[in-house]
# Entry
Amino acid sequence: MANIPATPAAAVATGHRASPWPRSSPSLPRRTAMLPSTGAAAGPRASWSWRGAAAVARAATGSDKAESSLFSEVVRRLVVAEFAQILFVEVSERLDTFQASGARNQNYMAMYSSIFGGITKDPSAMVIPIDDHMVHRGHGVFDTAAIMDGHLYELEQHLDRFLRSALMAKIPLPFDRSTIRSILIQTVSASNCTQGSLRYWLSVGPGDFQLSSSGCANPALYAVVIESPSLQVPAGCKVVTSSIPIKSPQFAVMKSVNYMPNALTKVEGEENGAFTGIWLDDEGFVAEGSNMNVGFVTAGKELLMPRFDKILSGCTAKRVLTLAEQLVADGRLSGIISRNVSVQEGKAAGEMMLIGSGILVKPVVQWDDQIIGSGQEGPIALALYDLILEDMRSGPPSVRIPIPY
# Structure
């Protein structure tokens, strides 16, 4: 685990990393964790290690699959067995076993937590307190930034939105903007990840299980670096009109952790053989996808997007609008507009596309039962994908921040 300097200058001056948390960050004590007992008082556990048992299983079978099976069997047995008090060190071992079981399908390279005031590269330690109000009340906000060729893409733009969301959610900042920015950059640096994504969260913090955040002494900042060695391919997809109610504008424009409607919209789309669902606003106009913006190319060759007043202001979508000026200049587009879009107009468009930091630009070839345009990936969507990808790789300093590995 590595500690974080309060400012980049402090790291240069001292050569060491110190926690920016206003209080000192003591090392984790050796403590015990009590699990509920189903019978009489439970005594100390026998000296049995999940990690050791898993290693024996691997040695016997020569396969990591045995470890996963062992993990599942132990969990099943514990459901019906008496639980005993376990030491914190064994909690750590069991977390390691869970990590090794293959239950996670992404590679987490580093995590920063203001709770322990530093960076860890151990995925088993990438946890947050259960009484953090972001967990049990959803009182938190988040944002992201892509990592491309050792640079953070549009960090400043995403960070500005992040802080606006925190203000709307009434979450005080644990540090000023420059310190948060420094922490995020240093977390990516410690990860040695050159391609992937950075996700970060602000919470009112841990403290209790009440509804009010008045018992939370300090807000919390978390950040995780996720490795993604390959990029999304701009293949055409199907979308469906979502039956899940859209968030009210007050919450739609805030990037909070309350993503249940978004998750259900995505699931509903997948259940219907589609990539995602498309939301309509309270007036029946096209709003957005589950976690991406929507764009169209009209019959008059205009790039058309719904207005951002009732939906999340997508940083990638706004950058695409800027880059699309190049297609206006060379005649491939006649203009760029933002206004209300009816479902009928959207389905009759020459092209439709989804836009977001995780997919960049993804062509839509079918909406419900309606084929969009020719039914193939449209040339404007593919051109915009190439433009945003080029911008990520060689754009101006305003959108690319080099990581000091």
Summary: Residues 244 and 261 are 7 Å apart (CA to CA). The domain at 2-24+105-227 is CATH 3.30.470.10 (D-amino Acid Aminotransferase; Chain A, domain 1). The chain has two domains: 2-24+105-227, 237-394. The first strand starts at residue 2 and ends at 3.
